[in-house]
Records
---
Amino acid sequence: MISKVRKVPVNGRVAVIGAGISGLTYSYFLRKLRPDIKITIFESSRRVGGWISSRKIDLKDGSEVFLEKGPRTLRVVSDGTLLIIDILKQLGATDQIYGMKKDSVANRKYLLTNTNELLAVPYSTKTAIRFLGSGIVNDVLKGLILEPFRSKRAQRDESVAQFFRRRLGNDALTNNIISAIYHGIYAGDVAQLSVQSLMPKMVELEKTHGSLLRGAMAKRKSGTKGPVLPDTLIQYSQKISPNSSFEELKDQLKGINLIRLQDGLETFPNAVAASLKGSVDFRFGSEVTHIDPSTGSVKVDNGVEKFDHIRSTINTNKLSELLQDDEMKNVLSLDYVSVLLANIYTKKPVIIPEGQHGFGFLVPKSHPNEECLLGTIFDSDIENYTDPIFQNAIQGQFSKTSTYNKVTLMIGGHFYNDRNVPSGKIIEKKIKNILQRIFDIRGTDYNLIFENPAELFPDKMALKANDVLISYNLHENCIPQYNVGYEQKKALVSSLIASKYDNRISLGGMAFGEGVGVPDCVMSSLGHALEIA
Ligand SMILES: C=Cc1c2[nH]c(c1C)Cc1[nH]c(c(CCC(=O)O)c1C)Cc1[nH]c(c(C)c1CCC(=O)O)Cc1[nH]c(c(C)c1C=C)C2
């Protein structure tokens, strides 16, 4: 990374806006790199962690139920996950890290068919035959045969749906499969999401080979090089964590697909925040009302403070209001989607269909979907098929029989753009419909007990065999959408920040960083902290 950003002077001040994982890790790296810098974190709420939130419910029988209210697993292929593991090691939380093997049952993924059945994404010959025979790929195969003969078009960003319609001559692949995948990452709409941002390799294949199939074959012949460690991680090892060895860590993680934290992902922001206590000035309940990066001033409530650098990790639409700068407002504005998350817990394993265990299922755009369901995570399977990584080597594939079921319904996303976001009893009705339609869980056979942020479950609940706990939250504007034109916007934001503000402000978080995942946000924090330190 070529640094054009001016360094913070000795004993300088940095303001971090937001105590989510982006603000915390940025402060953590900066603190390690430059202990002389005085860091102030402004957080409008009273807690750290942002979208990462783990809830513990105490039951009367002495047991505990952990519910993840936001992100919960981290993919090992992501460089940011290696970084997170090293931070957790430094903070003494190694015992929290649980890993899932790649060939684990809990790594299986499903698509919801129009007849409300789960169709396995192929993981064996049998499931491949079933997948191909399901009808889901009929028009896809037709489109693929003609794909090499379709002409390529002048390069201009377009939506994922437009790209595949052009290459395949129909929408079958997009509507039946790709739309589901992007429901499971962005909760987004393939008709809006940018192919350049989401599938740059596909765009490149078309550009250089004129066809995706021809390009893929050429790539196979030339072979692919293994991933190299990014420069930021090398600098991290040199400047922040000299005992870290990412190559060794990669070796240890061979065969492991994802990790989770035993007491919930919130353990991570909590541990980082605890390590910063005493050396960083946390201002909880502080509403920032105005920012002027050209003078470094931050207005909070009624006072104004001056800083050498401002790090914003908040929603960029909110940020643009704080900047009160029309030119920035236009480029910073992004579409965000809201996701309704419903955590469901039963004492008996009655939700996840027998023989269809796995990570969960996704709902493609072609599915008739009145309730706007995007997908469902099988949390109890993930829990049952993960082992501590650094205590004992993983002995083999865990296959604990689940004595309970825990799943999370992910609802809304881009579907809510064209409809009213439901509230209160309507949300509960939608959840009931999903439970009945897909899982055959009916209010007549089960006792459905709802919890929302305004009405929490009582302390020490006594849970009966037929009780179904349902805890839901609406995460408003939680995922920015990398829609058509996003790359251009991102480049413009970066050049305006340099020309107007001399880079005295930088952006973290999901909007204009390295991606929407937690590991992406942590990598972005590291990259920018290295730049100004
Ligand atoms: C149904 C909705 C969602 C599910 N997860 C997310 C949403 C909106 C959020 C999410 N999922 C992923 C990321 C990226 C993080 C990262 O890559 O580090 C985010 C923000 C990862 C992801 N999840 C699925 C896929 C295919 C991916 C990308 C790559 C991979 O891990 O293979 C699948 C998936 N997500 C959800 C379900 C139920 C599901 C599959 C069955 C939930």
Note: The two ends are 14 Å apart (CA to CA).
---
Amino acid sequence: MSLSLQMLGTGNAFAKKYFNNNGLLLDENYTLLIDCGITAPLAMHRLEKSFSDVNATLITHIHADHVGGLEELALTLKHVHGKKMTLLLPETLIEPLWNNTLKGGLYQEDAVSSLSDIFDVKPMQPENIYKLSPTLSLEIIQTPHIPGKNSYSLLINNEIFYSADMTFQPDLLISLVRERGIRIILHDCQLGGTGVVHTTLEELMSLPKDVRERIKLMHYSDEQPDFVGLTGEMEFLEQHVNYKL
Ligand SMILES: O=c1ccn([C@@H]2O[C@@H]3COP(=O)(O)O[C@H]3[C@H]2O)c(=O)[nH]1
Ligand SMILES: [Zn+2]
Ligand SMILES: [Zn+2]
């Protein structure tokens, strides 16, 4: 089995040198887009990839760097390719994604009045395992990010943890490694300041070595080059590089 990850971008919400932190998870017969932010359409174009070749898009939470490209994705698929994207998303996000984010741009009288009129919606719930292909399965874990906003991390094939955006959860990270045997942790990383809505590099550096050595850093600011060599065992993921997982 060969599973790989190619990030469309590894930047935070305000980065200008990096695209939004969205990724393509690829196995032999299946491509999953993890989040589709404002910059995702341009990043796909730069990689000479088409949304029509993506089997499904998964949404972790409703921030523009994670959902801001969905309007273009949906309209391109409908009007250029004549199809709907399969949209995997936690059930709690369906209503706010439509009413608070997408309805303004996608509503069309007698044609599009709900998320499922424009996407093939597949609601997800924590603790269920979703088998996307013979070699790719997914679980969602609700994790803290912004007070009052539902946000989710991912467990891929019961061996890879993808934090999406979350505040520092040391107990969760330690138990994922020591109790669930998680091999790789792909984690958002705020390089400076205090971790109010994200996890800081300083916080990740405080983790025990057996956890740190499984971590790859993503969702970082434009200052990332100043921090190369200062992250201990944890390496930065680079956008557009295809990593075997
Ligand atoms: O209380 C807050 C709420 C938000 N923010 C910023 O807005 C950004 C939204 O996208 P993000 O979740 O990738 O990152 C967030 C932060 O950069 C913040 O600094 N403090
Ligand atoms: Zn983000
Ligand atoms: Zn966020």
Note: Residues 13, 21, 63, 65-66, 165, 219 surround zinc ion (ligand 2) (CB under 6 Å).
